[in-house]
């Protein structure tokens, strides 16, 4: 028996796990690693995925998207491993995907934050076949002892109907919900570091976030992964929080389209209305997402918005006219001091006839 044989049974529905056809043909083929865009850039520039301990000791974890309560319950040996899931759309991802106000995060079961999520998809059969790879049938982020396995036979006996569970848990007892949630977080682990030779796809939520990831990589001279970066959808992401969908830029101005969900108190006004542009009460900073925008021309001229006297809000549509036409400029959108978009307008190149 080979790992690929079991995976073929999963994707062909010979082993029925209740997934819809799209997810059934997709999820079982890959091992999934989920991280914030800033960590993703670091990973792609270094050429390795590394364990939490390694990242911490080498000071290369830029955004910590894990929940402190989960990490505190995770055994030290697990933090020495590179960790993958068998699936996307885990409960953990539900809690930490996308920009949220500090207040909203504090109300959730897991206080975790992954503002701009990026998925790395690795070939599952090849990853499982690595000599030092192991896998579990449930989460390793609990204090209980969990068996680690390493054979195709053990893999074939995993509770896939729970690992790939993708329907409501309404009607289940609290104990049953806890068990299913644990199985959804079943893991593949490899000691310390994994190179990117088995990386097959990199998924992001929107055109704007794809542009941002490419821009950040290109700033480092890294063009190696351009063809890997693709748009994901609801089969990978929840896509129900705040993020930048698309940015249109021209020499005279730019327009930003956002996906919004409770970016500020509802009694301040509608998110699809022009007003309010700014925080009604800037002192309650945990209740709203604070937006700053910066444009930079090739000769170094910088324009920042808003001015120091205002705190701008995250709206569904944000349009701006430049003070004077600029054939080329870089635009950066920050939300709560984290990059939400970065891209370039270069109308000179666009007009070249070749």
Automatic annotation (TrEMBL):
Membership in a protein family: Belongs to the DarT ADP-ribosyltransferase family.
Matches recorded under InterPro entries: DarT
Protein name (record): DarT domain-containing protein
Pfam families linked to this entry: DarT (PF14487)
Leader peptide range in chain numbering: none
Segments passing through the bilayer: none
Keyword Chaperone: no
Record organism: Levilactobacillus koreensis
């Amino acid at each position: 028996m080979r790992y690929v044989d079991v995976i073929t049974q999963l994707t062909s529905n010979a082993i029925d796990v209740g997934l819809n056809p799209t997810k059934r043909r997709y999820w079982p083929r890959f091992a999934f690693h989920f991280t914030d865009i800033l960590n993703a850039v670091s990973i792609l520039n270094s050429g390795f995925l590394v364990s939490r301990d390694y990242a911490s000791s080498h000071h290369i974890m830029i955004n910590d998207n894990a929940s402190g309560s989960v990490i505190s319950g995770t055994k030290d040996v697990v933090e020495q491993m590179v960790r993958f899931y068998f699936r996307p759309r885990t409960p953990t991802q539900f809690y930490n995907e996308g920009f949220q106000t500090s207040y909203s995060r504090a109300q959730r079961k897991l206080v975790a934050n992954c503002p701009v999520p990026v998925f790395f998809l690795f070939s599952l059969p090849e990853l499982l076949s690595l000599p030092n790879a192991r896998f579990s049938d449930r989460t390793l982020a609990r204090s209980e002892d969990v068996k680690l396995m390493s054979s195709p036979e053990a893999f074939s006996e995993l509770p896939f109907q729970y690992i790939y569970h993708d329907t409501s848990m309404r009607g289940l007892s609290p104990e049953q919900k806890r068990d299913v949630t644990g199985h959804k977080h079943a893991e593949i682990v490899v000691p310390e570091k994994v190179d990117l030779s088995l990386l097959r796809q990199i998924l992001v939520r929107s055109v704007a976030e794809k542009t941002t990831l490419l821009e950040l990589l290109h700033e480092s001279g890294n063009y190696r992964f351009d063809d890997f970066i693709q748009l994901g959808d609801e089969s990978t992401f929840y896509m129900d929080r705040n993020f930048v969908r698309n940015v249109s830029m021209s020499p005279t101005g730019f327009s930003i389209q956002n996906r919004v969900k409770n970016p500020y108190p509802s009694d301040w006004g509608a998110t699809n209305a022009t007003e309010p542009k700014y925080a009604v009460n800037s002192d309650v900073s945990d209740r709203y997402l604070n937006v700053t925008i910066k444009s930079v021309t090739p000769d170094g001229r910088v324009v920042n918005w808003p001015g120091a006297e205002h705190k701008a809000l995250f709206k569904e549509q944000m349009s701006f006219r430049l003070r004077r036409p600029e054939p080329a400029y870089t635009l950066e959108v920050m939300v709560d001091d984290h990059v939400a978009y970065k891209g370039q307008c270069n109308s000179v190149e666009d007009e070249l006839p070749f």
